[in-house]
Amino acid sequence: MVCSELERQRETLERVQRKVDNIEAHADESNYILKGMRSVFTSIGRAFSKKPDLPQDIVAKRAAERAAKREETEKGIADRAAARSGGSTPSAASAAAASGSSGSASGGAGTVSATKPKTAAEEAIAEEDAILAAISRNVDGIKRVGHAIGDELDRQDTLITDLTTSVDRTTAKVDVANSTARRLAR
CB–CB of 151/8 below 8 Å? Predict the structure, then answer.
């Protein structure tokens, strides 16, 4: 449930990023047009200057840049997952060893009394072992969910950082277009 909500949020961030890229491309185009409207000389200068890229080209370029960053993030996540999988086995083995060692100590104490209490003690130890195994499985499941949430938050952190940079860059371009338009309107 939590992971699906985080994935939905990531998709929303990606949609917002595409829209910001589109706005940035249109701001570039607006700045180019407004620059040519300032005077006759700037119109002549514009004839020799490079036209801005088409909006879809800019969006595709930004998407390719983000895809490269996303690959780096995914590689880091995969490396951490590989390190975790190598480290999780010893903890499960030590938990099983701990439950086994406590079981033998309890069983040793039951040898002094009659045979019937010994069987009851062994049953209690077996029941405790089963409960501990179930708890261990549940803790491992919670741990995997926690790692999945952490990985998704790492992905979103990268997206938010890129989005912040894009919004700042786009805001600056829109501000330039607005100020140029105001000067032309005077």
Answer: no
Q: Where are the domains of the chain?
A: 2-185
Is 23 within 8 Å of 178 (Cβ atoms)? no
Tell me how far apart the alpha carbons of residues 141 and 135 are, in angstroms, rounded to a whole number: 10
- The whole-number pLDDT of residue 136 equals 95
Query: Tokens representing 137?
Result: 């499985």
Count Cβ atoms below 10 Å from residue 133 Cβ, excluding itself: 14
pLDDT > 80? residue 93: no
Q: What is the DSSP letter of 110?
A: T
Model pTM score = 0.62
Name the 3-class secondary structure at 42.
Answer: helix
Per-residue pLDDT band at 63 (split at 50, 70, 90): confident
